[in-house]
Amino acid sequence: MSDKYFFSQTLIDSWHDDEKVKMGGDALEINTPKGKREYSLEPACRVLGVSGGGEDPHGVVGMVLTEEELAQKGADLYLDSCIFGETPYDVEPGYMAVMIAGAGAPSPKAEEAAAKKADETGESSEDDLLADYLKKTLS
Fold it and tell me: Which H or E run contains 88?
């Protein structure tokens, strides 16, 4: 199971408006059929492409980068734009989310056993189930 997710600000706003999530400080709580899941959040963005098209000289299109990572790379972020050197990029603002241990998160042994069972039986993994649930019920 992946330990990091990207939730766009637009998606979180939609979930919040529908009262499907609770957000406070740097934490997000999502109700799932298996119970509540809590995530710690760090401001981030998904790099969508070079503004106006063109080549990607920095190789960042498609990446999710935290605001801290952007600052370390010398990039300037403003709303839905980011500038790396002389190259402007379109970005989707949001958050890098990491599940908080003990907040509905399965133990590493449980994850391993579930993944093995899913491989053997062809069942969906916990990660797939969460992704499907989020797609179907929260958007």
Answer: strand 87-99
